[in-house]
Amino acid sequence: MTAVQATAVDVPTEDGTADAYLAHPGDGGPHPAVLLYMDAFGLRPRLKAMADRLAGAGYTVLVPNVFYRHGRAPVVEMPEFIDPGARPEIFERLRPIMQDLTPEQAMRDAGAYLRWLAECPAAADGPVALTGYCMGAGLALRTAGTYPDRVAAAAGFHGGRLATDAPDSPHLVAERVTAELYFGHADDDPSLPPEQIARLEEALTAAGVRHRCEIYAGAGHGYTQADTSAYDEAAEERHWAALLDLLKRTL
């Protein structure tokens, strides 16, 4: 692992300014860029640590606060250890903020994040990769379909609502995706039931998208997040192996 340099940055968007975290190798050179989409709990120390680990592997990583319209991170104050079962008010506060972010807004923002990375001296020229967690998995899939010329790879882990019957479901962008995709689904996840897993697989296959979808047996929704009650260390390490393999192959 190489030395990592990290800083807080501001990304101008069409609707304001998104605060974000940028991590990259400390050697002064440009490196392949990764856009990391947060889970609902937001930009916090855990996601910064994940960005640092990716940067240590040789990538320039941007983690935007996708809820910036509601304020700078932390938009909702989080305890050091997040147990939604014991603290139901956390989701009560987050739910309207999540619902307020429309797909149209999110994809306008995605264009801003990608433009910012294209101009960032620490980011190498060429397409970027995406990785997203929980709600971020859907944002990664949407971004891959909305900006296919900018995205070489996209991964999503313990994603929810990826293939609903809604007219704007994330899986409906499949026919526009040119990136290679990887999804690590949580096992027995109420936010991604078997019929949605099958619908996503069918859409990606029908569209000819290079992809792999795997179910992480025994791992619950949120398994990568070490600051939550859902954390599963073995599943998290499996996620790192799959993600780094995808990045190495595509970037």
Q: What value does the average pLDDT take?
A: 97
Envelope shape: globular
| Low-confidence region ranges | none
Distance between the termini: 18 Å
What is the H/E order? EEEHEHHEHEEHEH
Helix content: 25-40%
Number of strands: 8
Give the SSE map.
Blueprint: E1 4-13, E2 16-25, E3 33-37, H1 45-56, E4 60-64, H2 89-100, H3 103-119, E5 128-133, H4 135-146, E6 151-157, E7 180-186, H5 194-206, E8 211-216, H6 233-250
Parallel strand pairs: 3-4, 3-5, 5-6, 6-7, 7-8
Antiparallel strand pairs: 1-2, 2-4
Helix pairs in contact: 3-4
What do these coordinates show?
By secondary structure, the protein is α/β, with parallel strands linked by helices. Helices cover 33% and strands 22% of the residues. An eight-stranded mixed β-sheet has the order 1-2-4-3-5-6-7-8, with helices on both faces. Helix 4 (135-146) links the parallel strand 5 (128-133) and strand 6 (151-157). The model has no long low-confidence stretch (mean pLDDT 97).
Question: Which keywords apply here?
Answer:
6 helices; single chain; globular; 33% helix; alpha/beta; eight-stranded mixed sheet; 251 residues
Please outline what is shown here.
This protein is of the alpha/beta class and 251 residues long. The protein has 6 helices and 8 strands; from the N terminus they run βββαβααβαββαβα.
